[in-house]
């Protein structure tokens, strides 16, 4: 009885903590038009091996959808094998999933604004997860600093 209760509590706690670090489909940036728009019209920060493009837009009314959309891309020219691209994309998504609170805190300081992110893997070599995660954290910190220094009229 005691073991069952302990396992039930552990399962409940793990489900409780999993909610904080989810990455639902509603937060994925999928539209190729929006990808292009963020890359061409938005701003960017770089931290080896990642480049983070971002665009912040004003919303007329409060949004019922997520205030943050993120997309991930890897050059087919630098990584011709799909398995390699998928591996690196999984690593980037996992790093973002665990650290997206930095981006959410940033956009929360600007009410009625929406943030679109595109993370691009820039180098031809395969980096391990730790390098990708550290680079993504630094990119998100640079993003926060850059957004805080911008005037909202110029964004």
Model description:
It is a single chain. This protein is α+β, with helices and mostly antiparallel strands. The protein has a single domain (23-149), classed as Ribosomal Protein S5, domain 2. Helix content is 48%, strand content 19%. Helix 3 crosses helix 5. The longest helix has 21 residues, at 129-149.
Sequence-ordered SSE layout with sheet pairings:
Layout: H1 2-18, H2 32-41, E1 43-47, E2 50-58, E3 68-74, H3 82-99, H4 101-108, E4 113-121, H5 129-149
Parallel strand pairs: 3-4
Antiparallel strand pairs: 1-2, 2-4
Report the top-level CATH class. Alpha Beta
In spatial order, strands of the major sheet run 1-2-4-3
* Mean residue pLDDT: 84
- Total helical elements: 5
Q: How does the major sheet shape up?
A: 4 strands, mixed
Shape, please? globular
Radius of gyration: 18 Å
Q: Tell me the series of helices and strands, N- to C-terminal.
A: HHEEEHHEH
Q: Assign the structural class, choosing from mainly alpha, mainly beta, alpha/beta, alpha+beta, or little secondary structure.
A: alpha+beta
Strand content: 15-25%
CATH architectural designation: 2-Layer Sandwich
Task: Find the CATH topology.
Answer: Ribosomal Protein S5, domain 2
Straight-line distance between termini: 59 Å
User: Oligomerization state of this entry?
Assistant: single chain
Please mark out the parts with pLDDT under 50 across 5 or more consecutive residues, or reply none: 14-18
Our count of domains comes out at 1
């Amino acid at each position: 009885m005691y073991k069952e209760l302990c396992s039930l509590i552990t399962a409940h706690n793990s489900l409780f903590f999993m909610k904080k670090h989810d990455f639902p489909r509603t937060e994925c940036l999928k539209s190729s038009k929006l990808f292009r728009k963020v890359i061409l019209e938005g701003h960017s920060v770089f931290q080896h091996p990642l480049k983070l493009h971002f665009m912040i837009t004003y919303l007329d009314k409060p949004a019922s959808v997520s205030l943050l959309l993120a997309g991930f891309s890897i050059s087919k020219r630098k990584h011709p094998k799909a398995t390699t691209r998928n591996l690196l994309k999984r690593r980037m998504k996992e790093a973002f999933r665990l650290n997206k609170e930095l981006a959410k805190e940033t956009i929360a300081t600007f009410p009625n604004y929406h943030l679109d992110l595109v993370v691009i893997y820039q180098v031809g070599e395969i980096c391990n997860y730790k390098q990708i995660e550290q680079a993504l954290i630094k990119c998100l910190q640079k993003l926060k600093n850059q957004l805080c220094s911008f005037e909202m009229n110029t964004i």
